[in-house]
Amino acid sequence: MQTVGLKLVTIVAEPVLEERLIEALHRLGARGHTLAEVRGAGSRGMRASDPPGQGVRIEVVVSEAVADRILDHVAQEYFPHYAVIAFVTDVAVVRGEKYV
Amino acid sequence: MTEILVQNLLSPVTLAFVLGVLARLARSEFTLPKDIYAGIAIYLLLALGLHGGVELGRASFDDILAPALATLAIGALTPVSSYLVLRRLGRFGQQDAAGIAAHYGSVSAVTFIAAQQFVNVMGQPSEAFMPSLLTLLESPGIHIALAIGAIASRSTGGLGATPLRSTLHEVLTGRTMVLLVGGLVVGVLIGPKNWGAVELFYDTKGPVFRGMLVIFLLEMGVVAGARLKDLGKVGPFLLGFGIGMPLVHGVLGTWLGTLTGLGVGGATVLGAMAASASYIAAPPAVRLSLPEANPTYSLTASLAITFPFNILAGIPIFFQVAKLTQSV
Protein backbone atom coordinates (compact mmCIF):
# COMPACT_ATOMS: atom_id res chain seq x y z
CA MET A 1 0.00 0.00 0.00
CA GLN A 2 1.15 3.54 -0.78
CA THR A 3 2.49 5.29 2.33
CA VAL A 4 3.77 8.78 3.03
CA GLY A 5 6.50 9.73 5.53
CA LEU A 6 5.26 12.12 8.26
CA LYS A 7 6.09 12.97 11.87
CA LEU A 8 4.34 11.66 14.97
CA VAL A 9 4.64 14.20 17.79
CA THR A 10 4.04 12.78 21.27
CA ILE A 11 3.57 15.05 24.27
CA VAL A 12 3.17 13.71 27.80
CA ALA A 13 2.09 16.40 30.24
CA GLU A 14 0.43 17.08 33.55
CA PRO A 15 -3.35 17.18 33.05
CA VAL A 16 -3.86 20.87 33.84
CA LEU A 17 -2.26 21.62 30.48
CA GLU A 18 -4.59 19.42 28.44
CA GLU A 19 -6.90 22.11 27.07
CA ARG A 20 -4.11 24.59 26.35
CA LEU A 21 -1.96 22.05 24.57
CA ILE A 22 -4.77 20.82 22.35
CA GLU A 23 -5.72 24.37 21.47
CA ALA A 24 -2.10 25.17 20.61
CA LEU A 25 -1.61 22.00 18.54
CA HIS A 26 -4.56 22.82 16.35
CA ARG A 27 -3.56 26.47 16.09
CA LEU A 28 -0.08 25.40 14.95
CA GLY A 29 -1.44 23.20 12.19
CA ALA A 30 -2.43 19.77 13.51
CA ARG A 31 -5.57 18.41 11.85
CA GLY A 32 -6.53 16.05 14.65
CA HIS A 33 -5.17 14.56 17.84
CA THR A 34 -5.31 11.45 20.04
CA LEU A 35 -5.45 11.76 23.79
CA ALA A 36 -4.88 9.14 26.48
CA GLU A 37 -4.94 9.39 30.26
CA VAL A 38 -1.77 7.89 31.60
CA ARG A 39 0.11 7.46 34.84
CA GLY A 40 3.74 7.93 35.56
CA ALA A 41 6.45 9.90 37.28
CA GLY A 42 9.38 11.97 36.18
CA SER A 43 11.93 14.49 37.37
CA ARG A 44 9.24 16.85 38.65
CA GLY A 45 7.58 14.31 40.88
CA MET A 46 4.17 15.46 41.91
CA ARG A 47 1.33 16.27 39.56
CA ALA A 48 -1.47 18.64 40.46
CA SER A 49 -4.28 16.33 39.46
CA ASP A 50 -7.22 14.70 41.13
CA PRO A 51 -6.46 11.98 42.00
CA PRO A 52 -2.76 12.87 42.01
CA GLY A 53 -0.22 11.23 39.71
CA GLN A 54 -2.22 11.33 36.49
CA GLY A 55 -0.95 12.62 33.19
CA VAL A 56 -2.12 12.97 29.61
CA ARG A 57 -0.44 11.76 26.46
CA ILE A 58 -1.34 13.70 23.33
CA GLU A 59 -0.29 12.51 19.90
CA VAL A 60 -0.55 14.19 16.51
CA VAL A 61 0.61 13.19 13.03
CA VAL A 62 1.87 16.26 11.18
CA SER A 63 4.30 17.51 8.56
CA GLU A 64 7.89 18.16 9.56
CA ALA A 65 7.37 21.94 9.55
CA VAL A 66 4.38 21.72 11.87
CA ALA A 67 6.23 19.29 14.14
CA ASP A 68 9.03 21.85 14.50
CA ARG A 69 6.58 24.61 15.35
CA ILE A 70 4.90 22.42 17.96
CA LEU A 71 8.17 21.45 19.63
CA ASP A 72 9.34 25.08 19.69
CA HIS A 73 6.07 26.17 21.26
CA VAL A 74 6.06 23.44 23.92
CA ALA A 75 9.72 24.03 24.75
CA GLN A 76 9.26 27.75 25.13
CA GLU A 77 5.95 27.84 27.00
CA TYR A 78 5.99 24.75 29.16
CA PHE A 79 9.41 23.17 29.63
CA PRO A 80 10.61 25.72 32.22
CA HIS A 81 7.93 25.17 34.86
CA TYR A 82 5.73 22.21 34.00
CA ALA A 83 6.07 18.46 33.90
CA VAL A 84 6.13 17.95 30.12
CA ILE A 85 8.07 15.79 27.71
CA ALA A 86 7.81 15.88 23.92
CA PHE A 87 9.39 13.84 21.20
CA VAL A 88 9.09 13.15 17.48
CA THR A 89 8.97 9.80 15.70
CA ASP A 90 9.13 9.10 11.96
CA VAL A 91 5.98 7.36 10.80
CA ALA A 92 4.70 6.03 7.51
CA VAL A 93 0.99 6.67 7.08
CA VAL A 94 -1.61 5.81 4.51
CA ARG A 95 -3.82 8.61 3.21
CA GLY A 96 -1.04 11.17 3.81
CA GLU A 97 -3.22 14.06 2.63
CA LYS A 98 -5.40 13.68 5.74
CA TYR A 99 -2.69 15.10 7.97
CA VAL A 100 -1.35 18.16 6.18
CA MET B 1 -10.67 16.70 75.93
CA THR B 2 -8.96 13.30 75.70
CA GLU B 3 -12.37 11.69 75.76
CA ILE B 4 -13.53 13.71 72.74
CA LEU B 5 -10.31 12.99 70.86
CA VAL B 6 -10.70 9.27 71.47
CA GLN B 7 -14.35 9.36 70.50
CA ASN B 8 -13.39 11.07 67.23
CA LEU B 9 -10.60 8.58 66.58
CA LEU B 10 -13.00 5.68 67.00
CA SER B 11 -15.57 6.99 64.51
CA PRO B 12 -15.95 5.01 61.27
CA VAL B 13 -14.93 8.04 59.19
CA THR B 14 -11.63 8.50 61.02
CA LEU B 15 -10.83 4.81 61.20
CA ALA B 16 -11.52 4.34 57.48
CA PHE B 17 -9.05 7.15 56.80
CA VAL B 18 -6.45 5.53 59.06
CA LEU B 19 -7.02 2.18 57.36
CA GLY B 20 -6.38 3.81 53.98
CA VAL B 21 -3.14 5.36 55.20
CA LEU B 22 -1.98 2.04 56.69
CA ALA B 23 -2.89 0.15 53.52
CA ARG B 24 -0.77 2.59 51.54
CA LEU B 25 2.13 2.41 53.99
CA ALA B 26 2.03 -1.39 53.82
CA ARG B 27 2.29 -0.99 50.04
CA SER B 28 -1.03 -2.69 49.54
CA GLU B 29 -2.27 -2.61 45.97
CA PHE B 30 -5.64 -1.44 47.25
CA THR B 31 -6.97 1.75 45.79
CA LEU B 32 -10.50 2.83 44.95
CA PRO B 33 -11.08 2.72 41.17
CA LYS B 34 -10.72 6.25 39.83
CA ASP B 35 -14.25 6.46 38.44
CA ILE B 36 -15.81 5.27 41.70
CA TYR B 37 -13.76 7.86 43.60
CA ALA B 38 -15.00 10.55 41.21
CA GLY B 39 -18.57 9.22 41.41
CA ILE B 40 -18.66 9.27 45.21
CA ALA B 41 -17.16 12.77 45.24
CA ILE B 42 -19.97 13.89 42.94
CA TYR B 43 -22.58 12.24 45.16
CA LEU B 44 -21.20 13.81 48.35
CA LEU B 45 -21.07 17.32 46.87
CA LEU B 46 -24.48 17.05 45.24
CA ALA B 47 -26.06 15.74 48.44
CA LEU B 48 -24.41 18.54 50.40
CA GLY B 49 -25.78 21.09 47.92
CA LEU B 50 -29.30 19.64 47.67
CA HIS B 51 -29.83 19.14 51.38
CA GLY B 52 -28.21 22.51 52.12
CA GLY B 53 -30.45 24.17 49.53
CA VAL B 54 -33.65 22.74 50.99
CA GLU B 55 -32.60 23.97 54.43
CA LEU B 56 -31.50 27.31 53.02
CA GLY B 57 -35.06 27.80 51.78
CA ARG B 58 -36.30 27.52 55.37
CA ALA B 59 -33.63 29.77 56.90
CA SER B 60 -34.09 33.46 57.50
CA PHE B 61 -31.79 35.98 55.85
CA ASP B 62 -30.98 37.61 59.19
CA ASP B 63 -29.59 34.38 60.62
CA ILE B 64 -27.25 33.89 57.68
CA LEU B 65 -25.99 37.42 57.13
CA ALA B 66 -23.52 37.68 60.03
CA PRO B 67 -22.02 34.17 59.62
CA ALA B 68 -21.74 34.81 55.86
CA LEU B 69 -19.80 38.01 56.48
CA ALA B 70 -17.59 36.13 58.95
CA THR B 71 -16.96 33.49 56.27
CA LEU B 72 -15.94 36.12 53.73
CA ALA B 73 -13.65 37.72 56.30
CA ILE B 74 -12.01 34.33 56.87
CA GLY B 75 -11.66 33.91 53.10
CA ALA B 76 -9.89 37.27 52.87
CA LEU B 77 -7.71 36.79 55.92
CA THR B 78 -6.41 33.20 55.73
CA PRO B 79 -4.51 33.54 52.41
CA VAL B 80 -2.81 36.73 53.65
CA SER B 81 -1.86 35.33 57.05
CA SER B 82 -0.58 32.12 55.41
CA TYR B 83 1.47 34.11 52.90
CA LEU B 84 3.01 36.33 55.54
CA VAL B 85 3.93 33.43 57.83
CA LEU B 86 5.48 31.49 54.95
CA ARG B 87 7.44 34.51 53.71
CA ARG B 88 8.57 36.00 57.01
CA LEU B 89 9.01 32.95 59.20
CA GLY B 90 9.43 30.19 56.65
CA ARG B 91 11.63 32.16 54.21
CA PHE B 92 9.73 30.74 51.27
CA GLY B 93 9.98 32.42 47.86
CA GLN B 94 7.13 34.64 46.72
CA GLN B 95 5.71 32.11 44.27
CA ASP B 96 5.90 29.13 46.62
CA ALA B 97 4.42 31.14 49.49
CA ALA B 98 1.56 32.39 47.29
CA GLY B 99 0.95 28.87 45.95
CA ILE B 100 0.69 27.36 49.43
CA ALA B 101 -1.38 30.33 50.65
CA ALA B 102 -3.92 29.70 47.87
CA HIS B 103 -4.44 26.18 49.22
CA TYR B 104 -4.84 27.37 52.81
CA GLY B 105 -7.08 30.28 51.84
CA SER B 106 -9.51 27.90 50.17
CA VAL B 107 -11.45 25.11 51.83
CA SER B 108 -11.63 21.32 51.84
CA ALA B 109 -15.19 20.09 51.36
CA VAL B 110 -14.36 16.69 52.86
CA THR B 111 -13.06 18.33 56.04
CA PHE B 112 -16.29 20.32 56.16
CA ILE B 113 -18.37 17.16 55.83
CA ALA B 114 -16.32 15.35 58.47
CA ALA B 115 -16.82 18.26 60.88
CA GLN B 116 -20.55 18.31 60.15
CA GLN B 117 -20.79 14.58 60.88
CA PHE B 118 -18.74 14.94 64.05
CA VAL B 119 -20.95 17.63 65.58
CA ASN B 120 -24.02 15.56 64.68
CA VAL B 121 -22.62 12.61 66.59
CA MET B 122 -21.79 14.90 69.51
CA GLY B 123 -25.44 15.98 69.64
CA GLN B 124 -24.69 19.57 68.62
CA PRO B 125 -25.75 19.65 64.95
CA SER B 126 -24.59 22.66 62.97
CA GLU B 127 -26.94 25.21 61.44
CA ALA B 128 -28.53 23.81 58.29
CA PHE B 129 -27.33 26.69 56.10
CA MET B 130 -23.64 25.85 56.62
CA PRO B 131 -23.17 24.35 53.11
CA SER B 132 -24.04 27.77 51.66
CA LEU B 133 -21.14 29.24 53.62
CA LEU B 134 -18.86 26.56 52.19
CA THR B 135 -19.48 27.91 48.69
CA LEU B 136 -18.51 31.40 49.86
CA LEU B 137 -15.16 30.24 51.16
CA GLU B 138 -13.88 28.17 48.28
CA SER B 139 -13.03 30.80 45.72
CA PRO B 140 -11.93 34.12 47.33
CA GLY B 141 -8.91 32.70 49.14
CA ILE B 142 -7.50 31.19 45.96
CA HIS B 143 -7.83 34.44 44.05
CA ILE B 144 -6.40 36.63 46.76
CA ALA B 145 -3.33 34.38 47.01
CA LEU B 146 -2.95 34.23 43.22
CA ALA B 147 -3.21 38.01 43.06
CA ILE B 148 -0.48 38.32 45.69
CA GLY B 149 1.69 35.95 43.65
CA ALA B 150 1.00 37.82 40.41
CA ILE B 151 1.80 41.21 41.93
CA ALA B 152 4.95 39.84 43.57
CA SER B 153 6.18 38.24 40.35
CA ARG B 154 5.47 41.37 38.32
CA SER B 155 7.53 43.50 40.69
CA THR B 156 10.48 41.13 40.32
CA GLY B 157 10.03 40.77 36.56
CA GLY B 158 8.97 37.12 36.68
CA LEU B 159 6.91 35.23 34.15
CA GLY B 160 3.61 36.82 33.18
CA ALA B 161 0.82 35.08 35.03
CA THR B 162 -2.23 33.58 33.37
CA PRO B 163 -5.00 36.13 32.86
CA LEU B 164 -7.30 36.33 35.86
CA ARG B 165 -10.31 35.54 33.71
CA SER B 166 -9.14 32.05 32.83
CA THR B 167 -8.26 31.06 36.41
CA LEU B 168 -11.55 32.54 37.58
CA HIS B 169 -13.28 30.34 35.00
CA GLU B 170 -11.23 27.34 36.11
CA VAL B 171 -12.24 27.74 39.76
CA LEU B 172 -15.86 28.75 39.24
CA THR B 173 -16.61 25.91 36.82
CA GLY B 174 -14.77 23.29 38.86
CA ARG B 175 -16.60 20.21 40.10
CA THR B 176 -17.07 21.52 43.62
CA MET B 177 -18.58 24.83 42.63
CA VAL B 178 -20.91 23.44 39.96
CA LEU B 179 -22.27 20.63 42.13
CA LEU B 180 -22.43 22.60 45.35
CA VAL B 181 -23.84 25.86 43.99
CA GLY B 182 -25.98 24.00 41.46
CA GLY B 183 -27.22 21.64 44.19
CA LEU B 184 -28.05 24.57 46.48
CA VAL B 185 -30.11 26.26 43.76
CA VAL B 186 -31.93 23.03 42.93
CA GLY B 187 -32.48 22.40 46.65
CA VAL B 188 -34.03 25.83 47.16
CA LEU B 189 -36.22 25.39 44.07
CA ILE B 190 -37.57 21.94 44.89
CA GLY B 191 -38.42 22.93 48.45
CA PRO B 192 -39.28 20.67 51.37
CA LYS B 193 -42.24 19.10 49.56
CA ASN B 194 -40.28 17.55 46.71
CA TRP B 195 -37.32 16.89 48.95
CA GLY B 196 -39.23 13.98 50.45
CA ALA B 197 -38.94 12.04 47.20
CA VAL B 198 -35.13 11.99 47.29
CA GLU B 199 -34.45 12.54 50.96
CA LEU B 200 -33.62 8.92 51.73
CA PHE B 201 -30.73 9.02 49.27
CA TYR B 202 -29.42 12.56 49.70
CA ASP B 203 -30.01 13.21 53.41
CA THR B 204 -26.60 14.31 54.72
CA LYS B 205 -27.55 13.01 58.15
CA GLY B 206 -28.75 9.71 56.73
CA PRO B 207 -27.10 6.28 56.50
CA VAL B 208 -26.46 6.38 52.72
CA PHE B 209 -24.46 9.58 52.99
CA ARG B 210 -22.49 8.38 55.99
CA GLY B 211 -21.73 5.07 54.29
CA MET B 212 -20.47 6.78 51.15
CA LEU B 213 -18.37 9.11 53.26
CA VAL B 214 -16.64 6.16 54.92
CA ILE B 215 -15.61 4.69 51.54
CA PHE B 216 -14.44 8.10 50.40
CA LEU B 217 -12.30 8.63 53.48
CA LEU B 218 -10.75 5.21 52.93
CA GLU B 219 -9.50 6.40 49.55
CA MET B 220 -8.49 9.77 51.00
CA GLY B 221 -6.30 7.79 53.39
CA VAL B 222 -4.64 6.02 50.46
CA VAL B 223 -4.07 9.32 48.66
CA ALA B 224 -2.70 11.04 51.77
CA GLY B 225 -0.60 7.98 52.63
CA ALA B 226 1.01 8.11 49.20
CA ARG B 227 2.08 11.68 49.92
CA LEU B 228 3.67 10.87 53.28
CA LYS B 229 6.92 9.90 51.58
CA ASP B 230 7.30 13.53 50.47
CA LEU B 231 7.29 14.78 54.07
CA GLY B 232 11.07 14.54 54.16
CA LYS B 233 11.37 16.72 51.07
CA VAL B 234 9.38 19.67 52.37
CA GLY B 235 11.34 20.32 55.55
CA PRO B 236 10.36 20.73 59.20
CA PHE B 237 9.01 24.27 58.81
CA LEU B 238 6.21 23.20 56.49
CA LEU B 239 5.38 20.32 58.84
CA GLY B 240 4.94 22.82 61.67
CA PHE B 241 3.04 25.19 59.38
CA GLY B 242 0.68 22.41 58.29
CA ILE B 243 -0.39 21.92 61.91
CA GLY B 244 0.13 25.36 63.46
CA MET B 245 -1.60 27.41 60.76
CA PRO B 246 -4.83 25.39 60.80
CA LEU B 247 -4.86 25.56 64.60
CA VAL B 248 -4.68 29.37 64.50
CA HIS B 249 -7.16 29.71 61.62
CA GLY B 250 -9.46 27.11 63.18
CA VAL B 251 -9.60 28.74 66.59
CA LEU B 252 -10.17 32.11 64.92
CA GLY B 253 -12.93 30.66 62.73
CA THR B 254 -14.60 29.01 65.71
CA TRP B 255 -14.46 32.27 67.66
CA LEU B 256 -15.87 34.26 64.73
CA GLY B 257 -18.62 31.69 64.38
CA THR B 258 -19.55 32.09 68.03
CA LEU B 259 -19.38 35.86 67.70
CA THR B 260 -21.80 35.86 64.75
CA GLY B 261 -24.39 33.74 66.51
CA LEU B 262 -23.61 30.18 65.44
CA GLY B 263 -24.15 27.41 67.97
CA VAL B 264 -21.42 25.05 69.18
CA GLY B 265 -21.87 22.80 66.13
CA GLY B 266 -21.89 25.62 63.59
CA ALA B 267 -18.91 27.37 65.15
CA THR B 268 -16.97 24.09 65.10
CA VAL B 269 -17.77 23.57 61.43
CA LEU B 270 -16.80 27.16 60.58
CA GLY B 271 -13.55 26.63 62.47
CA ALA B 272 -12.86 23.43 60.52
CA MET B 273 -13.59 25.31 57.28
CA ALA B 274 -11.13 28.07 58.19
CA ALA B 275 -8.53 25.49 59.24
CA SER B 276 -8.83 23.30 56.16
CA ALA B 277 -6.71 23.56 53.04
CA SER B 278 -7.95 22.86 49.54
CA TYR B 279 -6.42 20.04 47.53
CA ILE B 280 -8.93 19.84 44.67
CA ALA B 281 -9.85 23.35 43.54
CA ALA B 282 -6.59 25.11 44.37
CA PRO B 283 -3.92 22.87 42.77
CA PRO B 284 -4.86 23.30 39.09
CA ALA B 285 -5.54 27.02 39.53
CA VAL B 286 -2.15 27.51 41.19
CA ARG B 287 -0.41 25.36 38.60
CA LEU B 288 -1.73 27.49 35.75
CA SER B 289 -1.31 30.90 37.40
CA LEU B 290 1.90 30.45 39.39
CA PRO B 291 3.86 27.90 37.36
CA GLU B 292 7.06 28.62 39.26
CA ALA B 293 5.54 27.49 42.56
CA ASN B 294 6.55 23.94 43.44
CA PRO B 295 3.37 21.81 43.79
CA THR B 296 5.16 19.33 46.05
CA TYR B 297 5.12 21.92 48.86
CA SER B 298 1.46 22.88 48.63
CA LEU B 299 0.07 19.40 47.96
CA THR B 300 2.13 17.70 50.65
CA ALA B 301 1.22 20.36 53.21
CA SER B 302 -2.51 20.34 52.47
CA LEU B 303 -2.97 16.63 51.78
CA ALA B 304 -0.39 14.84 53.92
CA ILE B 305 -0.27 17.19 56.92
CA THR B 306 -3.25 19.50 57.33
CA PHE B 307 -6.01 17.18 56.11
CA PRO B 308 -5.03 14.30 58.45
CA PHE B 309 -4.45 16.74 61.30
CA ASN B 310 -7.95 18.20 60.96
CA ILE B 311 -9.61 14.79 60.67
CA LEU B 312 -7.70 13.23 63.56
CA ALA B 313 -7.41 16.13 66.01
CA GLY B 314 -8.39 19.55 64.63
CA ILE B 315 -12.16 19.04 64.51
CA PRO B 316 -12.51 17.80 68.13
CA ILE B 317 -10.19 20.62 69.27
CA PHE B 318 -12.35 23.26 67.57
CA PHE B 319 -15.42 21.62 69.09
CA GLN B 320 -13.88 22.01 72.53
CA VAL B 321 -12.96 25.63 71.78
CA ALA B 322 -16.52 26.30 70.63
CA LYS B 323 -17.88 24.79 73.83
CA LEU B 324 -15.53 26.86 75.97
CA THR B 325 -16.29 30.15 74.20
CA GLN B 326 -20.03 29.55 74.39
CA SER B 327 -20.25 28.47 77.99
CA VAL B 328 -18.87 31.79 79.25
**Helix and strand element order of chain A:** EHEEHE
Kindly report the greatest chain-chain contact and the residue count on each side. Answer: A-B, 14 and 22 residues
Order of helices and strands of chain B: HHHHHHHHHHHHHH
Described by strand count, sense and barrel closure, the largest sheet of chain B is: none
Residue-averaged pLDDT of chain A: 90
Structure, explained:
- The complex is a heterodimer of chains A (100) and B (328).
- By secondary structure, chain A is α+β, with helices and mostly antiparallel strands.
- Chain A contains 2 helices and 4 strands.
- Helix content of chain A is 24%, strand content 35%.
- Chain B is mostly helical and 328 residues long.
- In chain B, 81% of the residues lie in helices and 0% in strands.
- Chain B has helices at residues 2-9, 12-25, 34-58, 61-89, 94-105, 109-121, 130-155, 164-172, 175-202, 207-227, 231-259, 264-275, 282-289, 295-327.
- At the A-B interface, loops of A face helix 10, helix 13 and helix 14 of B.
In short:
The complex is a heterodimer of chains A (100) and B (328). With 100 residues, chain A is of the alpha+beta class.
Present the secondary structure layout.
The complex is a heterodimer of chains A (100) and B (328).
Chain A: E1 4-13, H1 18-27, E2 34-39, E3 54-62, H2 64-77, E4 84-93
Chain B: H1 2-9, H2 12-25, H3 34-58, H4 61-89, H5 94-105, H6 109-121, H7 130-155, H8 164-172, H9 175-202, H10 207-227, H11 231-259, H12 264-275, H13 282-289, H14 295-327
Helix pairs in contact in B: 1-14, 2-10, 3-9, 3-10, 4-5, 4-7, 4-11, 5-7, 5-14, 6-12, 6-14, 7-9, 7-12, 8-13, 10-14, 11-12, 11-14, 12-14
List keywords for this structure.
A: 100 residues; alpha+beta; four-stranded antiparallel sheet; 24% helix; elongated; B: 328 residues; mainly alpha; 0% strand
